[in-house]
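Feature request disguised as a bug: please show the residue count (219) next to Polar amino acid transport system permease protein in the output. Example input:
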Amino acid sequence: MIQFTTWDVLRGLLLATRWTILLSLVSFAGGAIAGAILLFLRIGKRKAGRVAVRYFVELFQGTPLLMQLFLAFFGLGLFGIDVPAWLAAGVALTLWSAAFLTEIWRGCVEAVAKGQWEASASLGMGYIQQMRYVILPQALRIAVPPTVGFSVQVVKGTALTSIIGFVELSKAGTIITNATFQPFTVYGFVALIYFALCWPLSKSSQILERKLNVAHRGH
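Example output, currently without the count:
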């Protein structure tokens, strides 16, 4: 019987952590880009765009991420299309992230006082100029803490991709447990690694929120 040392277990988990980090970065970045586009449609003047984005957001917020992963991975398979696990995981997490970021940022834009819209309009600014020079800079300040905080949810969400065969940290934990029969040690390390990834982000979100609130009160 092969003997596995604690270092062997930890090394295997750290190697898998690379894929957790990469998937988190790709999903968050893709979600941010898509979310920014959807935001402008959501707060735009065209009703069709607002309604379409609202239904998109409700669909992805109102259904479990696990189901979305299943549909991304197995749904296209019904039509004979072979979808790699990493692609299905990336697409599902990106769309899921986009839906939540769109709503987070919409709330931040709407949190800007209506007087700012009225004041900029009185200066003869058009809608694009209002957004660029007045509204978005203020909304960005409000949006930073919840956006950083949401990145923690993205990291945690990657754990669900193990269900479609993507080998990230939690999937690697299961594989190593089956080989070593040391579930307490393996999952203890898994929990510590997730904590090491998520705690700095959570703390950063709290610090940014305090600093930005103090700066806002100072004005």
